[in-house]
Amino acid sequence: MRILIDPRYSDYDTRGHVNNAVYLTYFEIGRHHAWRALTGLAEDYPFIMLESSVRYVSQAKWGVPLAMDITVAEVRTKAWVWAYRIVDSRDERLVAEGRTVQVMFDYDAQRSVPIPAHIREQLTRAIEARE
């Protein structure tokens, strides 16, 4: 799934670069879109974040149009991994890449739970569609 990113003024540091911390916010925006696309659920996020990582490859300076590709990289029993690539949408130059691990979570019981079959199916289909 590709998402266009329009960096906001507050995303930039004093040198005119997208600040390193902002990429995790971009990933969050991607998760929101991917979750909705995969499950059709717009408001219910029955998962928590276990891990996130970002690798910075090149600079995104003031005015550079960005795009983010988000894919399902792995499905586990209770968790799955989303992989992200942020590029300059003019020439596909890689700016940053990363991954996050989400864990299905029962907020009432305050514990992790297995991924429900219907969601596992959607996540698995997303992997198969890439191959």
List the helices and strands and how they pair.
Elements: E1 2-5, H1 22-39, E2 47-56, E3 66-75, E4 79-88, E5 93-106, E6 111-112, H2 117-130
Antiparallel strand pairs: 1-3, 2-5, 3-4, 4-5, 5-6
Instruction: Note the gap between the termini.
Output: 14 Å
* CATH superfamily placement: Hotdog Thioesterase
Helix % is 10-25%
Q: SSE order, as H and E?
A: EHEEEEEH
Name the beta content range.
35-45%
Structural class: alpha+beta
Uncertain spans, ≥5 residues at pLDDT below 50?
Answer: none
- What is the number of beta strands? 6
Supply the CATH architecture: Roll
For this structure, the quaternary state is single chain
CATH secondary-structure class: Alpha Beta
How would you describe what is shown here?
The protein is of the alpha+beta class. The protein is elongated, with a radius of gyration of 16 Å. 24% of the residues lie in helices and 38% in strands. Strands 1, 2, 3, 4, 5 and 6 form a 6-stranded antiparallel β-sheet that branches. It has 2 helices and 6 strands. It has one domain: Thiol Ester Dehydrase, Chain A, CATH 3.10.129.10. The mean pLDDT is 93. The longest helix has 18 residues, at 22-39.
Protein traits:
single chain, 131 residues, alpha+beta, Thiol Ester Dehydrase, Chain A, six-stranded antiparallel sheet, 2 helices, 24% helix, elongated
